[in-house]
Each structure stands twice: as C-alpha cells, then as structure tokens.
Inverse folding.
C-alpha cells in the first residue's frame, strides 16, 4: 500500500518542525520572567514561522 500525502501535516518536514515548536515552548517556559518580552517571544515566533511557510 502506498502512503499518500493528503495534507501538509502528513509531510515529515512539517512533523519535525511541529515537534521543534513544542520543544521551544517547553524550553522557554523555564526561562526567567525578565526574558519574557525579548528572548522568549522571539524564539517562539521564529519556531512558529517554520511551520507557517
């Protein structure tokens, strides 16, 4: 049986990028509140942009 891609979420590259987004969110939850408005937001937006393209 052949695996067919029916949706972009079936792509391995998308699945890997989504895992990265989840890992970034888990990691940034451990950062201090002082980092919230610069580093955390930037890291999260960068990770999300990968899956948005």
């Amino acid at each position: 049986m052949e695996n067919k891609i029916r949706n972009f979420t079936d792509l391995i590259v998308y699945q890997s990028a989504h895992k990265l987004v989840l890992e970034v969110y888990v990691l940034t939850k451990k950062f201090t509140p002082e980092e919230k408005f610069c580093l955390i937001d930037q890291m999260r937006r960068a990770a999300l942009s990968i899956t948005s393209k």
Notes: The chain has one domain: 8-52. The chain is about 65% helix and 0% strand.
